[in-house]
């Protein structure tokens, strides 16, 4: 799912448009709601903490506008900043295998 380089704007738009993760793989993480599971993990892996905050909605805000903000966030067609660092559902298929447990 991780490209070897940041995607261009055009590539990011294409990846976001084709990605099914944004509508099926939501995440609650450290008081934020994410339309995708990738932003907080990409932020940590890439050392870009802004991804984790820019790409999600703060749930600690108990204002009446929270429900509206969540709806607008989910219906927005603009790619998340994280989408430029992810291939989403467009990445190549790879066989997965279970690794042996590590011994301490």
Question: What would you note in describing this structure?
Answer:
The protein is mainly alpha-helical. The chain has one domain (9-90). It has helices at 9-18, 21-24, 38-46, 49-54, 66-75, and strands spanning 27-29, 32-34, 56-58. The protein has a three-stranded antiparallel β-sheet. Strand 1 and strand 2 form a beta hairpin.
* Assembly form of the protein: single chain
Write down the overall mean pLDDT: 84
Distance between the termini: 30 Å
Which structural class do the helices and strands define?
A: mainly alpha
Number of DSSP strands?
3
Shape: globular
Low-confidence stretches: none
* Main β-sheet, spatial strand arrangement: 1-2-3
Beta-strand level of the residues, as a percent range?
5-15%
Please trace the helix and strand order, writing H or E for each element: HHEEHHEH
Number of domains: 1
Major beta-sheet overview: 3 strands, antiparallel
Helix content: 25-40%
> What count of helical segments does DSSP give?
5
Radius of gyration: 15 Å
Write the layout of secondary structure elements.
Blueprint: H1 9-18, H2 21-24, E1 27-29, E2 32-34, H3 38-46, H4 49-54, E3 56-58, H5 66-75
Antiparallel strand pairs: 1-2, 2-3
Features:
104 residues; mainly alpha; three-stranded antiparallel beta sheet; 5 helices
